[in-house]
Amino acid sequence: MLNKNSVFLLISILFWGFSFVAIKVALREVSPLEMISVRFLLASLTLLMIIKIKGLSLKTRVMRFKLVLAAFIVFLHFWIMATGMKETTASNAAWILAAAPVFVAILANLYLKESLHLSQWGGLGLAFVGVFLLTYNGDMANLGWLDSRADLLLLSSCVTWALYTVSTREITARVHPLVATFWMVTIAGLFFVPCTLATSGYHKFIELNNDTYLSLVFLGVFCLAIAFWLWSEGLKRGKAAEVSVYLYVEPLVAMLAGWWLLDENITVWLISGAVFISAGVYLSERISKIRTAVQKA
Predict the structure, then answer these.
(1) How would you class 264 by CB atoms within 10 Å of its CB: exposed for 0-12, middle for 13-18, buried for 19 or more?
(2) Percentage helix, strand, coil for the chain under 3-state DSSP, each rounded to 5
(3) Whole-model pTM?
(4) Average pLDDT of 193-210?
(5) How far is the CA of 231 from the CAs of 93, 138, 152, 224, in angstroms?
(6) Of 205 and 147, which is predicted with more confidence?
(7) Is the pLDDT score of 34 beyond 50?
(8) Which residue in 188, 266, 279 sits closest to 225, CA to CA?
């Protein structure tokens, strides 16, 4: 039975998994920087609307400096991702980004003093094997590793995501996750939007195809605003290292989205990868629940 925290995290992963399809559609007509700028603008407006509906205050008396720092990390993460994804293959990206939960676990241990049980490290390892199988998919050529500057950029984005996850874990302990997400997204957007307006103007966005509009709305409203908010809610309730294991579900969702929407084939390697990922996440989540129950007893 999934708990509330697991539901928050899985919804985020569901949106992020489908985002790979939406990104492919959007990039047919807009550049990576233009796409990111629209995402941040839509996300900021969406979060502001939700905050007003819920009657929350935008004022934060604590963690202001760390909110600005986290927003800069978000900006840096998206910029690195956009640059790296533009110059490398999707299979390389999936394989390299699988290292993110490992970086989160290490950083959470060093900075937040969080520790993982040996079985949880085992779960993380199982999930990593699952991503390996998904990426391999019967062809060794899919397992390219740090072949270019773009691959190094993507590897560094694992570090920026780890920094974001750990800093958000600390911030949401004292600031409402929705308000914290709004400020991080809005401040980061102040870097992207003016740059896009200065280089591209607004006229380019007037006559886009409907598929592009839908993709941009999905990426901004659901994959950034809603997903980042729910991810922050999950981080508030769970350890950063334990939460990060859910990231391994993302390539699984992306695979299913590609099969459903892009007619991509599903092979025995993809199915095997899905089994390992599911087992790894289940093992990590199960051990976490047992430890929580023991602590409460």
Answers:
(1) middle
(2) 80, 0, 20
(3) 0.76
(4) 89
(5) 21, 33, 26, 10
(6) 205
(7) yes
(8) 188
Q: Are 227 and 22 in contact (CB under 8 A)?
A: no
19-48 per-residue burial string, b: 16 or more CB within 10 A, e: under 16: bbbbbebbbebbbbbbbbbbbbbbbbbbbe
Q: Which two tokens stand for residue 189?
A: 């957007």
As a whole number, mean pLDDT of residues 132-143 equals: 67
Mean pLDDT (the chain, rounded): 79
Measured distance CA(146)–CA(156) in Å, rounded: 11
- Closest CA relative to residue 50, chosen from 180, 193, 166, 236: 180
Question: What is the pLDDT averaged over residues 260-279?
Answer: 71
The structure tokens 């072949």 sit at 147
Least confident window among 98-102, 251-255, 261-265: 261-265
Contact yes or no for 247/7 (Cβ under 8 A)? no
- pLDDT tens column, 215-256: 999 999 999 999 999 989 888 877 776 677 777 677 677 777
Q: Which phi-psi region, left, alpha or beta, contains residue 228 (left: φ > 0; alpha: ψ -120 to 50)?
A: alpha
Write the CB contacts of 213 (distance below 8 Å, at least 6 apart in sequence). Answer: none
Query: Which two three-digit tokens encode residue 133?
Result: 């199988």
Q: Any idea what DSSP says for residue 27?
A: T
> DSSP class of residue 238?
S
Query: Do 277 and 252 meet the contact criterion of CB atoms below 8 Å apart?
Result: yes
Q: Please, which residues have CB within 8 angstroms of residue 280's CB and are 6 or more apart in sequence? A: 122, 123, 124, 125, 126, 127, 128, 129, 130, 245, 248
CB 137 within 8 A of CB 272: no
Query: What tokens appear for 78 in the block?
Result: 């998206």
Over residues 58-83, the mean pLDDT reads: 87
